[in-house]
Design a protein that fits this description.
By secondary structure, this protein is an alpha/beta fold. 41% of the residues lie in helices and 20% in strands. The radius of gyration is 34 Å and the shape is elongated. InterPro entries: 2-isopropylmalate_synth_dimer, AIPM/Hcit_synth_CS, Aldolase_TIM, IPM_Synthase, LeuA-like_post-cat, LeuA_allosteric_dom_sf, LeuA_N_DRE-TIM, PYR_CT.
């Protein structure tokens, strides 16, 4: 990077050390959430939402649980104005939801904003003007005092218009481009605005400190927020709010550390939609809190349905690796990860734990509407025996012996590698059936019958078919399966040892069926596996043995 010398740090540290926030471990209660999807989010879309789309999006935000929703900049366009009037006139705003509107500190814009709000049950009027060094010098070419005067003029007009307009209004002020503003000047302008509004704990004002453009590491922003929190006038009458953007990719960290530093309110959007690299993602913030056992007071228990509405209305896409919401964020392809997850899920079931602690899964995917099947463990050539066995057990109820899982894992990985694709659960099950289940070639079991001389002596006659011809073979043993095993080895001239046997009822699907697994070791040392599935447990065992033998002799 050859032009590094043209850049310098554009932020301003507080004049005193502000690091009390570092002593806090985590966020202990939810801040007030304000969605700005319909303003910041909407203005960042290639094709902004129309009236019907905005109404549907607004309802989704209400359903999620937002109690404050910024609905737009009503003086900016007729669509914005009409949307707000529709919400008010059609009584679409629940009594416990406060709408918020944005206005510049310009008289005609403020007056039109209040026209749009007539009759609102409760609304926040959000006043802003730019205060940063770059904006003052390059855009407005005004002194600090002239910038303060812009803010004060707007603040006074808000009070006047609120008295003249039917409705219930709360005021908010943002020193826009706060992160590029000298911290003492940001404090001065906010306190001058508060002097106009004279807020109280019963009638508080909102001071919003936006990271309009991220210019520092998150700890610097937190120190700035703490300094402002401790030095604002009328502090008991001020709700301190943060509004991080994501230029440096640390919007979530800015918001979280900002809350530790004294912020009581967060403005953000679903999945971080917003200008440039976006606003802070409220979904991530809320579910980060949830993962610490703190109720975020927002309902994301069906993330897939929220994503479907979000993508349809905004024409944006939620990235596959977007925290919590992305298609692949809970998915493990790696064999070691899959094995750890599968064992963690089994451990949780064994211990009946009421606390969530599963390797690689910070929260239970089911809590936000994701499924274990297909969402957590997905299979490709990088996968391992644990994950593949987990898929079979979860979806089809097949609990393979450990060594058989390993053998089958290589089969599946080879198929995935050759086909260069991910394998779906149905494809994995088909591979399993074709490889192991009820194999009939080259030796087909037709029927078998038993006689019992005593508890340790069983005789069997087995009818088999090879090369299209049926014949009977006889054997004896200390059990039914042992008798058939001896018949096969004696009459077919095959040799194997070390039977590994496992059986269980199939609890998924038809409960009347049973699954049996058998492994046999050939003279060469190679282990061959078979599975039998049948309504009768003895028959499933015999079919498993025939399947293993067929694996060996063919």
């Amino acid at each position: 990077m050859k032009n590094v010398d043209k850049y310098t740090r554009g932020y301003f540290m507080p004049p005193v050390t502000s690091l009390k926030w570092t002593q806090k471990e985590y966020i202990t209660e939810a801040p007030t959430w304000c969605s700005v999807d319909l303003r910041d989010g909407n203005q960042a879309l290639v094709v902004p939402m129309n009236l019907e789309e905005k109404l549907e999006y607004f309802q989704m935000l209400v359903d999620i649980g937002f109690k404050e929703i910024e609905v737009g900049f009503p003086a900016a366009s007729e669509t914005e104005f009409t949307f707000l009037r529709t919400l008010i006139e059609q009584n679409l705003i629940p009594d416990d939801v406060t709408i918020q509107v944005l206005t510049q500190s310009r008289e005609h814009i403020i007056r039109k904003t209040f026209q749009s709000l007539a009759g609102a049950k409760k609304a926040v009027v959000h006043l802003y003007n730019s205060t940063s060094v770059a904006q003052r010098e390059q855009v407005f070419r005004k002194s600090k005092e002239e910038i303060i005067e812009i803010a004060l003029t707007g603040a006074k007009l808000l009070k006047q218009c609120a008295e003249e307009t039917e409705g219930n209004f709360q005021f908010e002020y943002s020193p826009e481009s706060f992160t590029g503003t000298e911290i003492e000047f940001a404090l001065e302008i906010c306190n001058r605005v508060l002097d106009v509004w004279q807020p109280t704990s019963a009638n508080p004002a909102i001071i919003n400190l936006p990271a309009t453009v991220q210019m520092s590491m998150p700890h610097v922003y937190a120190s700035q927020i703490e300094y402002m929190s401790e030095n604002l006038s009328y502090r008991d009458g001020v709700i301190l709010s943060v509004h991080p953007h994501n230029d440096r990719g640390t919007g979530v960290a800015d918001a979280e550390l900002g809350v530790l530093a004294g912020a009581q309110r967060v403005e953000g959007t679903l999945f971080g939609n917003g200008e440039r690299t976006g606003n802070v993602d409220v979904v991530t913030l809320a579910l980060n809190m949830y993962s610490h056992g703190v109720d975020p007071k927002l309902n994301f228990d069906n993330i897939p349905s929220i994503i479907a509405v979000y993508e349809r209305l905004t024409k944006m896409k939620v990235g596959e690796r977007q925290p919590y919401g992305g298609e692949l964020v809970f998915t493990a392809f790696s064999g070691s990860h899959q094995d750890a997850i599968a064992k963690g899920m089994s451990f949780r079931e064994e211990k009946s734990s009421d606390k969530w602690s599963v390797p690689y899964l910070p929260i239970d995917p089911k809590d936000i509407g994701r499924e274990y099947e297909g969402d957590i463990i997905r299979i490709n050539s990088q996968s391992g025996k644990g994950g593949i066995g987990y898929i079979l057990q979860l979806k089809y109820g097949l609990d393979l012996p450990a060594k058989m899982r390993e053998h089958f894992g290589y089969c599946v990985k080879n198929v995935s590698d050759q086909q260069q694709k991910e394998l779906m659960p149905e494809e994995i099950y088909d591979i399993f059936k074709n490889q192991y289940v009820n194999l009939k070639a080259p030796i087909e079991l037709v029927k078998c019958r038993f006689t019992e001389e005593d508890e340790q002596d069983f005789q069997t006659i087995v009818t088999i078919r090879t090369d299209g011809a049926a014949k009977e073979i006889a054997g004896s043993g200390n059990g039914r399966l042992d008798a058939i095993n001896n018949a096969l080895q004696t009459h077919l001239g095959i040799d194997y040892s070390d039977l590994v046997y496992k059986e269980h009822a199939l609890e998924i699907g038809s409960k009347s069926q049973a699954a049996s697994y058998i492994g046999i070791t050939a003279a060469s040392g190679t282990v061959y596996w078979g599975c039998g599935i049948d309504a009768d447990i003895m028959t499933s065992s015999v079919k498993a043995l025939f399947s293993a033998v067929n694996q060996m002799v063919r």
